[in-house]
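Dear colleague,

Following up on Tuesday's group meeting, I ran the structure prediction for the four-component complex that the binding team flagged. I've pasted the input sequences exactly as they went in, so you can double-check that nothing got truncated or mislabelled along the way. The structure tokens for the whole assembly follow below. Feel free to forward this to whoever is handling the docking comparison.

Inputs:
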Amino acid sequence: MDFTISTKGQDYLDRVKAFMKDEIFPVEDAYYKELAARDNRWVVLPIIRELKEKAKAQGLWNMFFPDETHGCGLLNSDYALIAEETGRSFIAPEIFNCNAPDTGNMEVLIHFGSDAQKAEWLPRLMSGEVRSAFCMTEPGVASSDATNMAATAVVEGDEVVLNGRKWWSTGIGHPDCQVAIFMGLTDGDAHKHRQHSMVLVPLDTPGIKVERMLPVFGAYDEPYGHGEVSFTDVRLPKSAIIAGPGRGFEIAQGRLGPGRVHHCMRAIGAAERTLELLIRRAISREAFGRPIAKLGGNPDIIANARMSIEQARLLTLKCAWLLDTKGIMGALSEVSMIKAVIPQMLQAIVDQAIQIHGGGGVSDEDFPLTGLFAYARALRLADGPDEVHRAMVARLELKKYAK
Amino acid sequence: MDFTISTKGQDYLDRVKAFMKDEIFPVEDAYYKELAARDNRWVVLPIIRELKEKAKAQGLWNMFFPDETHGCGLLNSDYALIAEETGRSFIAPEIFNCNAPDTGNMEVLIHFGSDAQKAEWLPRLMSGEVRSAFCMTEPGVASSDATNMAATAVVEGDEVVLNGRKWWSTGIGHPDCQVAIFMGLTDGDAHKHRQHSMVLVPLDTPGIKVERMLPVFGAYDEPYGHGEVSFTDVRLPKSAIIAGPGRGFEIAQGRLGPGRVHHCMRAIGAAERTLELLIRRAISREAFGRPIAKLGGNPDIIANARMSIEQARLLTLKCAWLLDTKGIMGALSEVSMIKAVIPQMLQAIVDQAIQIHGGGGVSDEDFPLTGLFAYARALRLADGPDEVHRAMVARLELKKYAK
Amino acid sequence: MDFTISTKGQDYLDRVKAFMKDEIFPVEDAYYKELAARDNRWVVLPIIRELKEKAKAQGLWNMFFPDETHGCGLLNSDYALIAEETGRSFIAPEIFNCNAPDTGNMEVLIHFGSDAQKAEWLPRLMSGEVRSAFCMTEPGVASSDATNMAATAVVEGDEVVLNGRKWWSTGIGHPDCQVAIFMGLTDGDAHKHRQHSMVLVPLDTPGIKVERMLPVFGAYDEPYGHGEVSFTDVRLPKSAIIAGPGRGFEIAQGRLGPGRVHHCMRAIGAAERTLELLIRRAISREAFGRPIAKLGGNPDIIANARMSIEQARLLTLKCAWLLDTKGIMGALSEVSMIKAVIPQMLQAIVDQAIQIHGGGGVSDEDFPLTGLFAYARALRLADGPDEVHRAMVARLELKKYAK
Amino acid sequence: MDFTISTKGQDYLDRVKAFMKDEIFPVEDAYYKELAARDNRWVVLPIIRELKEKAKAQGLWNMFFPDETHGCGLLNSDYALIAEETGRSFIAPEIFNCNAPDTGNMEVLIHFGSDAQKAEWLPRLMSGEVRSAFCMTEPGVASSDATNMAATAVVEGDEVVLNGRKWWSTGIGHPDCQVAIFMGLTDGDAHKHRQHSMVLVPLDTPGIKVERMLPVFGAYDEPYGHGEVSFTDVRLPKSAIIAGPGRGFEIAQGRLGPGRVHHCMRAIGAAERTLELLIRRAISREAFGRPIAKLGGNPDIIANARMSIEQARLLTLKCAWLLDTKGIMGALSEVSMIKAVIPQMLQAIVDQAIQIHGGGGVSDEDFPLTGLFAYARALRLADGPDEVHRAMVARLELKKYAK
């Protein structure tokens, strides 16, 4: 048994931590102020482009790829701890070219894309020149049941025609966002896991309209954002279908594992940051003659937060290690478990941090807690609500008893 | 035993419900859209003034006063159910001239104000011409311990001089807000419950500055708002001290009971509205071939919400009835209990409603749930955090065993 | 609104409290010791018979009947508070002839029994000479679904023949227990609420065998006990069917309301007793220089217990008041709510009391907490598990939205 | 990173699993029945002695020792998984000579015992011929604060004199129990961690009296049991003090780490067994036409159980690994975390298993759930209540911010 990161992973982790400390944390406040002062916040501020160049120059770039061709050859379990570190700052993932959904989209292209698709998009995504979106969730139906999906990707001769309305397409507001992966129903008569297709669609294709950007507890998360997008008779050559018609679920499943680990480890980083805020506040304020850190149930809150973070991290690392050693089929339950556990854990800790901050806790101007709360709350719904993941865990558990 | 509202109360309740249904709910959407479209949202839109006149004309005005001279002679337990009804809409309380902190401030003036103070402010507050604020909480100290208060109200000859910084002064952004009650330290050597004074201070007095309006999860709650206010050598005649120096805690305690009942009953109204939203969504969406209302743990969520609302309402009604029959000293524990129980209950139900709404649940544009969440979350801190109220309940419980 | 007991109820409550204080609490310890010392604990000790006579002589007898013919003419809401008081001692209910399942069984006889059935059994049950059992739950099937019931009550000519196995037949170990109400399937083809019958069956009828007495966390609750009973070709005249074949569910529903209130109010009495034990321990023990009542999260535990008891009591009293004023059909949701809420509340408080008692908390010899725990735990299953009651509350809630 | 057991550990684990499957599980029922049928249950039944011999012959003996001299040279992290396996049966630990408190007592002797102490006791403890007890907790004081300890171990010339009353001395009822480690106050004026001594005391020393055996939810856990023991002027040569006067806390700390891991891993084994019972019942019973495993919130219960077991196990394994690699000082927080987390987790799962079993769940005769519940409940108090461990975790967390 060994709970340590690999030597190589440690080296990258050290360098990422140093980069965060030296380059990112010091500029965060100024960055947000400058962005907030803009009339149009859907822009990439120069500091971000600068930091991206710096990170790239230092080789802290595309670290999420497990192979050395595209990335740095880090194990999922190594990168997990790096993702945790980047989760301490909302702007960090982009700076290292490690932000969702680009990470998952690049993986899809590598594993399922045609040569032409790879040639056209991969270099630009990997260089950070271009961003992408993932269009799956729909406003009109309960997304917890994927078979509800109403959007269509119908093959007509040499073309595929996309119709439907998607929302929570994260990152689509980014000025560099030029392409999306769209999922839609192709053949309702096929086996239920062969009905849907994923289509790679440039966002300047006629018929695509970003109807609006969606707020999350009032915040639009500029310049990334979450879009509601309509697709009206969007026509593309049939070759735009990734891996061919009907392979949407297969691709979705392959895309799933590492992405969940990244999300969850970033959320753990956010939880660590939140606990730090909580404790710093709790030791700096006094009531009844003692720091509130020592008052009433507050030590329990601190201990419970520490205990749930530690457990959540270990579960996620084990999941990453299973992906490394056994692949997605060996990590099916863990991949669902972490998604059910971590966002809820983060939400609970942020809620307690708000309580300990008093009035300041609910003011976005004073502390980042409302933003962290919104992030946690949305994460309990993104990529499937908690309920769906618990149901999957239960199903796999019952399966052990089936004969 | 009788769990019914009085005949008179029922009459008012019926009329308030009809008014809500006929006049308020139908205009809410348009109201919010019009307000959102304004460059300056710190205004009273004409529809509000119109509705106030209508409500006043129908006698649905100042219903919170228990006496017939100032109000309608309703019992606290009668008015509680009316407050619940008004809690279903954020704009309703002002329309009935029943919104905090004006209700509490008017009560303070009636019970502790001098004839001159009453003559100057009461008619205008009671007519709804003028609004007021309450300046107690401070940004620099943990408010859970009232003795932390750093602001001062020092008597110098015939004058009282106010200094300090307050925040979360609710309603101070309202264009009609002209006066505030300020609480500050007068004599640090006096008995600990005789050190502070409340001072009635017109907001145009030199030295008062609203430094900024505070966001709650990004929302400013225009046109009411929550202000951070600095008081710098604010000089007033000594007669501005309500009931004389050192009586701040005594007044605060008298102000406390009915205000808590109002807050909590409005929160219960908000919880009912939230549960209605939750259920309507849950029966209108399907997954796996069934409405999500019937899926997995969702029936439990609905049942638990119903059970906690029912219990919370009964506790608050009993508290109101104790105030009616035994006064604040007979309701000390209940007044703390409801404040510890109800906001937390509301937050839990809103959180579950968000979950059941999926992505739409976190979008302010689509559902009012994020606003309800922010309201619940802030209420767990306003007027003392949960912790303080639980501590009071425990203290009173232990007192029963002291000899 | 009025949260007080009636004058008449108050008089009875005062007298019951005095009786508990003067007659029951002082003998409890000796009673349990004497019983424990017996080889055969399935006996009625003389002190119980004496106290029964005393209670009867004082008119504190059969107080659960709402009418004056059989009982004292107390409202359900009055008797509820008396039931709470008797819930403080496990032996009290029998002493006042107010213990389950005799209370419910007597009600069934009065409302549904034939003249002959009444004549034969009612006087002896009402005098406390005879006890009864209720045979419904079965070991072989999930009782949460009543249609699962496998036992049969088949009409053959002039006879009804009972077959099947029942368990958790409470009170069947009592030496005075002579009769039971048995529920079984009569006609599987009838409407689903007309398939079952209730049969009044003397326990000396051939074919009935108490297979064993069941322990609850190791305790047999002598001399009442919970039996597993087999019925093998038990033949009775058809007139033994209460109200005629197929009316089992109808009778069950009528039996339901007041019984739930009694159970829940006794559990609230047990919760009050537990909280008292918890606090007395917490103020008598010190750690780190302070009574543990003031340590860490313990004040929260005390406050939360007080708040949940208060709310639970109010909910139950409202349920009782609804039964008084609107009957069972007006209290359907409340009757389910209390059963879902109160036993779980009691269990949580007992668990915390155990924790605060330390090692002594788990030792039956030192404190009554393990017995209270077993009582609470079993109550979450008796008369339907929590899940069934929450499901009913949810169903009734959804019904409000059905059109 | 590597989450697997070592090759050597795997070999032992496989053999332990086989032994459990082939030798222990098949005899459990008969063993308990035979024991229950005895008038005197404080005996070692022949089957236990046989199985001990078999285990010893297979080298599955004293596996908890990390060294090869005394044990098998297994890492703590290896043995942890073996302890989990033995936690599935209450009788297994003794059979492998791996049961508390003998494990900890042997460790103490090895690390702190004098040559004479070792020579006298170690061979017999290691051979399983003799058992031991640990006398620390006291009935008269809150044990959460160790400085409360009232028992004394006073040095008088060449002797040490023990006085005081201890309880929850586990294993003291065992017929082979011949020696105990007693902790008492030696010098109240010394530094607070140098005041207490541990004394090795043969149980036949005059002045020692087992006053009674304590029940845990009615069960005496024969033939081990938990004793209340009085020490009255028990005189021993001064050499009986382990490592010399005043070193009690130092020894306690050293004893602490591995013991906690063993306790917690056994509890995890018990949790796995409980979850298996829960699921087997849930798939074998039907209600409303479906197995109750799929009904309502039950899948969530199963998923939550799985997720909390997985996290708890990982936390405990990491703690074991830290002990292996960094020693107790590198695992201080984790050693407290696991004790706060695992027993509570086990209790929650057993409670849910009881609920899913319905009435059978509370009957000790039908399912082992009440026994598992009592075990979990007691474990939340044994070796320090949850509160103490959470407080330690919080203290260590705050320490990170101290400068």
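Chain D is about 50% helix and 15% strand.

Cheers,
M.
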